[in-house]
Specification:
The chain is mainly α. It has 9 helices and no strands. α2 crosses α4, α3 crosses α4 and α8 crosses α9. The longest helix has 23 residues. The chain is globular and about 50 Å long.
Amino acid sequence: MDDSKILDLFWERSEDAIEETDKKYGRYCKYIADRILENEEDSLEVKNDTYLAAWNTIPPKRPEPLKHYIGALCRNIAMNRRKAQKRQKREGNVSLILDELAECIPEKEGEEMVDSLLLRDALNRFVRSLPSRTQKAFLLRYWYACTIAEVASELSIKESNAAVLLLRTREKLKEFLVKEGFTV
């Protein structure tokens, strides 16, 4: 079923919307949650929470493309769950990834929603400006929470090269955000 028909089901408040979303994007959501949480049970809960969040936000939203909206909901829910787990015990790949980006991304000090949206737009522009290989490495590491070894394998390069590529990209991100007016 195509996205517009699935969205129509959400707007009609048909429970089939959840079933069709699961058929089309269930594996995608599970992959995202698995990468962040590294726990089967938590990933399944996040997937279900994603569908609930979609149910509660569609309508009034009519997101296009639906895949990106579902993916963002899933990622945000998984990251929030991971942050809650991190408060209890600091460990794992995601903590390392967040620490890496902490040097580039400004701290939220009473930050309003508008500032968050401006930062999101700046990050999107930065990622789009990267060469395709660098963009892929950045997204694999910081969106899909892949390890350095997995990034290197995906790009067919050495781990040390992947680590240097990501380090240089973070440095460029920091410079970019400073030029955009964000203080780090």
